Amino acid sequence: MTARPAGKSARSTTKDPKAPKAPKASKASKDPKAAAPPRQAPPLDPGDRARLLAGEHHDPHGVLGAHPVRGGVVVRVLRPWAKEVTVVSKGRRVPLRDDGDGLFSAFLPLLRKVPAYELSVRYDGPDELAVQDPYRFLPSLGELDLHLIGEGRHEELWTALGSRIMTHGGVSGTRFAVWAPNARGVRVTGDFTHWDGTGLPMRSLGSTGVWELFVPGVGEGALYKYDITRPDGTHTVRADPMARRTECPPNTASIVTESHYTWDDQEWMARRGARPHHEAPLSVYEVHLPSWRPGLTYRQLAEQLPAYVRDLGFTHVELMPVTEHPFGGSWGYQVTGFYAPTARMGTPDDFKFLVDALHAAGIGVLMDWVPAHFPKDDWALAEFDGRPLYEHEDPRRSHHPDWGTLEFDYGRKEVRNFLVANAVYWCQEFHIDGLRVDAVASMLYLDYSREHGEWLPNEFGGRENLDAVAFLQEMNATVYRRCPGIVTFAEESTAWDGVTRATDQVGPGGFGGLGFGMKWNMGWMHDSLEYVQKEPVHRKYHHHEMTFSMVYAYSENYILPISHDEVVHGKRALVSKMPGDWWQQRANHRAYLGFMWAHPGKQLLYMGQEFAQGAEWSADHGPDWWLLDPAYGAEPDHRGVRDLVRDLNTVYQATPSLWERDTAPEGFQWVVGDAAEDNVFAFLRFDAFGSPLLAVSNFSPVVRHDYRLGVPESVVAWAEVLNTDAGRYGGGDVVGRDPVKTESVPYHGRTSSVRMTLPPLATVWLRPA
């Protein structure tokens, strides 16, 4: 049953049977404003009537509402389940005739123009409701909005489409607007209509494919969806693609919302782009928010997460997709609400509170963003208006073979606009500092995970998805232009040329750069993990897997990721990948982190790996925090690894040679890269002024005494600044407490060298003493 529309309650018209009867008035004394019997309106065209009731009318405002005709004004109202409807104008009440099926009409004579009016509606019971008529309002979307939508260039699309609380024509309510160009009709339905959309058909705004309706009296917190009539006449009820707030899964309704949050991070926003990210320290802690501390809200997380990350010295957090998603087991990578933070932990303003708290702690916020695909849920984007809309119409271009999802049609300007504006939205409205774009390789290649005959080549016969290339270039160019200080990251697993090259610089393949700020170095991740999982006796045969990354290290701006993908699905946690007994596993773990932090490129570590959690991560219960409980016998082992991560970040940030020239070849020199028999790697890092840091990793389980390494003769002595074998980290404490003096002994092609003791399964950093 349709709910009574929101509005102030009119005075009951029920008469008191005990009240004295008023004297009968003569014709001359009758009040001219008294109710008059309704005049018959011209009959409604049968086609219009049928289309209205079927939800197929493209212009309900042309039929409903008040319209001047010869001799007066006709008023027509569609109010399903109403018993009586009355027009009230300047104190005059005119009852409408019940035309059946929820349609009411009246003829108001002697009026030359439509007067200001409202409706008084009675449902079951004696009381009447005073409400505004949605069909007396002009469109609430301007010509500029419609022009930009039609061009696919509305960079603040969320301000035009979706639901928006506003005052229109002096009346407060909510404007609903949705893009559904294939629909025969669209209606708004929600808790304010008891989920019967019959009475709220939307109008089509020209050739843009946008449908719009301003509904008076609907405000914040209202639940809604769109009842869409498909081209074949069937109906589908869909959540709003532009919803900025949603119900908590498994519920799927969109929620009318507006922000009341006041930001307090002006200083952070002003200085966040002061230094290019590839020339600045950047150390990322990757977090799956729902499971970091299961059960915490955004505001409760704001009390714990910033302090924890700041204590460990990370410069940024990367949040696994916070956009709304129906299945928690997807970790947020199958998105249904691209403009809504997941409701699992609170409201959009609550999420802003968390971002603000992280900024107050000096921590940047990166967000995983998923423009590669979307799930097939029948209440979301898939065949949204009855035909492929957000996805490509050819299944060979739309169906993702790996994840059972649908790929976006990047060649459609409105779809590109939806995604580009979405990237801007998160950076602009939620002060996100960077976007990590998921599954870029699956976007770039038409034959990604497809066999011969299962994919369509591009117009030149190639396998490159030219539409996706253009979209990524547009997205990067737009967010960098509109949101100073942000950075974008590409999770791109192939050797695509120019991922982090400027979009206006054409490479040897004929493509302009994609315009990303950084790229995940998936090759380094796979190669290095392959190496450290080997028993030390076998590592000499895989030595090149640790050195190969330097062959291409400067082809892009890289970040080195040990992400959630590497600690699930049978891959084991990082420490559990390591060979040997528990002591050796932790030693390998620490040595690997020391090598990673010293290697050219920024670094990312997934939660739980900072304290050597042995079990695979589970989205259901999150990190094993009990390992850090002092009552647990092995707690010092795990706390020691976490202390190492803190010191790695502390020394890293204080040492420009480890980050200032990450993308410049002159910032790195091998000391020895071919000591395969020893399982040793040694290299130098240099800052912009030439000041060096010496990093030495010994991936064998034996102490190497008097190990000679060639070093620059300009450095007289070297002092350890970090040793992963230190006792406080759980190591054997084979540390160099005194500086190592440089000797005039040629070695490794240099005129000078040092002799030092290399601890087993450890990485040592040394700086000029």
Describe this entry's structure for a reader.
Helix content is 21%, strand content 25%. It is α+β, with helices and mostly antiparallel strands and 769 residues long. The chain has an eight-stranded parallel beta barrel. A six-stranded antiparallel sheet has the order 31-32-33-38-35-36.
How are the secondary structure elements laid out?
Blueprint: E1 9-10, H1 46-54, E2 65-69, E3 72-78, E4 84-89, E5 92-95, E6 97-100, E7 103-109, E8 118-122, E9 128-131, H2 143-151, E10 162-168, E11 171-179, E12 185-190, E13 203-204, E14 210-216, E15 223-229, E16 235-238, E17 254-255, H3 266-271, E18 283-287, H4 289-292, H5 298-312, E19 316-319, E20 323-324, E21 337-341, H6 348-360, E22 364-369, E23 373-374, H7 395-398, E24 399-400, E25 405-407, H8 413-429, E26 434-437, H9 440-444, H10 466-482, E27 487-490, E28 518-520, H11 522-532, H12 536-539, H13 544-547, E29 558-562, H14 574-577, H15 582-598, E30 602-606, H16 635-653, E31 668-675, E32 680-686, E33 692-698, E34 704-711, E35 717-723, E36 740-741, E37 752-758, E38 762-768
Parallel strand pairs: 18-19, 18-30, 19-22, 22-26, 26-27, 27-28, 28-29, 29-30
Antiparallel strand pairs: 1-9, 2-3, 3-7, 4-5, 4-8, 6-7, 8-9, 10-11, 11-14, 12-15, 13-14, 15-16, 15-17, 20-21, 23-25, 24-25, 31-32, 32-33, 33-38, 34-37, 35-36, 35-38
Keywords: Carbohydrate metabolism, Glycogen biosynthesis, Glycogen metabolism, Glycosyltransferase, Transferase
Active site: 438, 491
Biased composition (Basic and acidic residues): 46-61
